[in-house]
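cron nightly-structures :: item 1 of 1
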Amino acid sequence: MRRAERLLQLLQILRRHRRPVTGDAIAQELEVSLRTVYRDIASLIADRVPIRGEAGVGYVLGEGFDLPPLMFTPDELEAVMLGLRWVARRGDGQLSRAAQDTVSKIGAVLPERLRPFLFDAGLLVPPGDRVIRDSVDVAQLRNAIREGRKAELLYKAEDGKQTQRVIWPLAVAYYDAQRLIVAWCELRQAFRSFRTDRMVSMAVLEQKYPGRRKALLKQMHEELERTHGVRDMDVFS
């Protein structure tokens, strides 16, 4: 790895973490000596890159600094393309179009030498034969998640029984064949997941649910780990 590439990768490692990263961890990922890491960090600091920390404690990248957004490696571009192809195949209609638009936007500003790694990436997502169609507009539920709003459902269980639910949508889980809305259910007073193909009707409410979404998700994961010993949303199905 050339020194310029190594310095960019070092910055990427720091940007990836919110907490201090030790020199040993950086050296292991870059496959260089600890002495080289210290020398590279000193060089970056001399170039006014806001790195804080010290040897033996760890380093963090300060506020107000960012890397050029399109300094991708070939592996990163293939990862981006694989993810976007999956979303284009498996996402709801609006998300699928957004994935295709994202490919076009990235490709339009990529350097010529990097474009083949995006457009000709040899990583494919085959069409799903068992994809179950949503019966509601998932884009509306995604907006409800962003805004922290409640939603009202008429939901059909596996046995055909229908119930009226008010939920606090927290996340969308995308599986190969179907989509689940992970939420707090006011009827059950518990975290539940709801298949989008079993929603007979859905309306996003003006009322916002109490609490922060991240805190609720953390609570959900803690309950899941405590009761089932796993962090798997399948148990809510």
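cron nightly-structures :: done
Residues 74-119 form one domain.
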